[in-house]
Design a protein that fits this description.
By secondary structure, the protein is an all-alpha fold. It contains 18 helices and 2 strands. The protein has helices at 2-37, 43-65, 68-76, 82-100, 121-145, 151-167, 174-207, 212-240, 248-276, 281-286, 289-324, 335-363, 369-389, 395-427, 433-445, 448-461, 469-478, 486-518; strands spanning 104-106, 330-332.
């Protein structure tokens, strides 16, 4: 019977896999036929057809891999179901791409190579096709491995490799390459620190207090208003800026106005809901449900507006080179190109996104809604801070860094608490065991301020010191816990490090292959 069950499960899995593959293939064929119908049948026209199909493939891979960072924490915290998350993200990604994707896009991502050093139109077209295919293929491999990687870094690597193959080492802006390499460290560190800060703030001001719901009434409306400011500013900078140029001051003012309105609307609702909930951590988590859903939607909208360029930038450049007859660092985005990107991202998310959503949401560390809220805050605030400091950051690295940050903070706090309990036991080791347990019960139930007073009293009775620093470290090693899956950390870090080199190598290989095919 068990053998039959395994066969049925395997058959169902294969059937689902074939369905996803079939839907993706139908989409690519539809893009091919659509592009063939609107272009000439000469060599350049066929290159545009090929580029459109690869651009659609790239867009699907962006949807499958990158969008997980926007909705993964909300799904992992059970604020929304996987199906709802996919539907919300697909709608807002497509909306962001179509509404705020911009009329002009950079063909050379991040100015990584100098288009003036590209010999001719044909070389530029081959370069862009090779770069696009390299980035898409690497994203496909990373998704299969369950590793969320930066799509921006993928396309940068593809353009860099194909560009060097086409024009030599001098074509690349190596200073820009160095900044991108620095973002491998900057992005996750900033995201992790900001997420950890907000989680610690929530713990100190709400979950470590005696009356959790009374504290939540005061603090949660302020946190939601802060989120409204962050996302209002973030959307102005990343979602609206491609269409209308705005300064940081104007964006921050709009965000502040939105935060004020949100605070006035949310505060009475939080008070009313708090009065119906029990005084528990689970009840506090309930208060973050709607803000998390809103955050997932807004992140998806901004991502669609900003990252659609990764899919259609090279395609728009190829279209400009064929139609306009020249190499350009900027190109207009025809509506049909934008539709290819938007539809591909939404379809890729629906077909293959759930795997990475589960990875980000639950397979790295356990997330509740408070922790997921902190990750969403980190995603918005890090982009704002980095954009003002001129630091290159990756939205993928920020979000995953936020997941790492809340997980490692929880590890630290649990170990620190275990060491404190052990100190208390050691200090009372010659006393009545019942008295020790009674003290520990009072200690565990106390809020932060009372815990501090209890520890100070113990230290006073111990001449100001319970254990030496070396002894505390020893206890920390004994009580060490792992709340972040180390194998996931290593896999993701390795994927981040090899993204640009692997995409670059593939880009160079594809350029030489395409040039060899196209040259007489």
């Amino acid at each position: 019977m068990s053998t039959i069950s395994r066969i049925e499960k395997t058959t169902l899995l294969n059937r689902n896999e074939f369905f996803r593959f079939g839907m993706a293939l139908v989409f690519l064929i539809a893009i091919m036929l659509f592009t063939m119908a609107r272009t000439d049948s000469d060599a350049h026209g066929m290159l545009l057809v090929v580029a459109a199909v690869i651009g659609a493939y790239m867009a699907m891979n962006i949807g499958a891999n990158d969008v997980a960072n926007n909705v993964g924490p909300a799904v992992g915290s059970q604020a929304i179901t996987l199906g709802s998350a996919v539907a919300i993200a697909a709608a807002f990604e497509a909306g962001g791409a179509l509404i705020a994707g911009g009329d002009v896009v950079g063909t050379i991502k991040n100015g990584i190579i100098d288009p003036a050093l590209i010999g001719d139109n044909d070389t530029f077209i081959w370069l862009m096709i090779g770069a696009l295919l390299a980035a898409a293929l690497w994203l496909n491999v990373a998704t299969a491995l369950g590793a969320p990687v930066s799509t921006t870094h993928s396309i940068v690597g593809g353009v860099l490799g194909a560009g060097v193959a086409a024009g030599g080492w001098a074509i690349a802006d190596w200073g820009q390459v160095g900044q991108i390499a620095a973002s491998w460290i900057i992005s996750p560190m900033l995201g992790g620190m900001i997420a950890a800060f907000f989680l610690y703030l929530i713990k100190r001001t709400i979950t470590y207090q005696d009356d959790l719901m009374a504290s939540a009434k005061r603090v949660v409306p302020l946190l939601v208003a802060a989120m409204a400011w962050a996302f209002g500013t973030y959307l102005m900078l990343k979602g609206v800026k491609p269409v209308v140029k705005v300064s940081f001051g104007f964006a921050a003012t709009v965000g502040f106005a939105g935060a004020g309105v949100v605070y006035l609307v949310v505060r009475p609702q939080i008070h009313a809901l708090s009065n119906r909930l029990a005084n528990s951590k689970a009840s506090v988590n309930e208060l973050f449900t709607i803000p998390l859903v809103a955050a997932a939607a807004l992140l998806s909208f901004a991502h669609g507006a900003n990252d659609v360029a990764n899919a259609v930038g090279p395609l728009a450049g190829i279209n400009e080179a064929i139609v306009g007859g020249g190499v350009s660092a900027k190109a207009a985005i025809p509506v049909w190109v934008l539709l290819v990107g938007a539809t591909g991202i939404a379809l890729g998310l629906a077909l293959y996104g759930p795997k990475l959503i589960r990875t980000v949401g639950s397979e790295i560390t356990e997330l509740d809604r408070m922790r997921a809220f902190c990750i969403a805050m980190a995603a918005a605030l890090t982009v704002i801070i980095a954009s003002q400091l001129g630091l290159p950051v990756s939205s993928t690295h920020i979000a995953v860094g936020g997941v790492f940050g809340v997980g490692f903070l929880r590890e630290y706090l649990k170990v620190n608490y275990a060491v404190m309990v052990e100190e208390i036991r050691l200090h009372h080791r010659e006393n009545d065991p019942d008295a020790i347990e009674a003290f520990l019960d009072r200690f565990e139930a106390a809020n932060v301020a009372i815990k501090g007073e209890m520890l100070r009293e113990l230290k006073d009775r111990s001449n100001g010191k319970l254990l030496k620093k070396s002894e505390r470290k020893g206890l920390g090693r004994i009580h060490r816990v792992e709340l972040v899956k180390r194998s996931s950390v290593l896999l993701i870090a390795a994927a981040w490090l090899v993204t640009v080199p692997v995409a670059g190598t593939l880009g160079a290989m594809f350029f030489f292959m395409i040039r060899g095919i196209m040259l007489p």
